[in-house]
Specification:
Blueprint (H helix, E strand, L loop, with lengths): L4 E5 L4 H12 L4 E4 L2 H5 L13 E4 L10 H18 L6 E5 L1 H10 L4 E9 L2 E7 L7 E5 L8 H10 L3 H4 L2
Parallel strand pairs: 1-3, 1-4, 2-3, 4-7
Antiparallel strand pairs: 5-6, 6-7
Helix pairs in contact: 3-4
Length: about 170
């Protein structure tokens, strides 16, 4: 169970964008939008007040040629800065998009993910393996996977206690 996940969306796939829009519209998340130039300068937005899931969303426009790697790295570094700088800490990471997931794992000094199972069909659930964030809950999802409700369902599943957790 996670109470406050940080969602990093680096995918530009229309499905990933529709999922963020739907989750924001139903009040499931707060979205922090970024701009390419600000990202590449290393500017980190201040996390908004609140204690629910936060989505760090890559810029709407696609990166200029040669910038996709640095952009994913910059977004991952922003996510780590948000993890470290929040008044109420994030207790899980949801990584949407392969480049961003890889960059995030590198930014936290991890050597991989210890997969425990699936949160939803096609959505692996695990823990970060290695580094200072060892053991942090992490969920990964391809940007083009699912429909517009997938992110909302994923977050609901992540935040719902399992039977064993509720019986403790």
């Amino acid at each position: 169970t996670a109470h406050r996940p940080l969602v990093l969306v680096t995918s530009h796939h229309a499905v990933a964008r529709a999922q963020v829009t739907a989750a924001e519209a139903d009040g499931s998340v707060t979205v922090v939008r970024t701009e390419i130039d600000a990202l590449l300068r290393g500017e980190t937005p201040a996390p908004p007040a609140g204690d629910g899931p936060l989505v760090l969303l890559s810029p709407d426009e696609r990166a200029r040629p040669g910038h996709s790697g640095p952009l994913a790295t910059a977004l991952a570094e922003q996510a780590v800065a948000l993890l470290d700088g929040a008044n109420r800490p994030f207790d899980a990471a949801v990584l949407i998009g392969g480049d961003g997931a890889e960059a995030f794992l590198t930014a936290v000094g991890s050597h991989g993910i210890a997969v425990r199972g699936t949160l939803l069909e096609g959505v692996p659930d695990g823990r970060i393996a290695g580094g200072p964030r060892d053991g942090l809950a992490v969920v990964t999802k391809a940007g083009g996977f699912g429909d517009e409700t997938t992110l909302t369902l994923l977050l609901r599943s992540l935040r719902t206690p399992t039977r064993t957790e509720t019986s403790r």
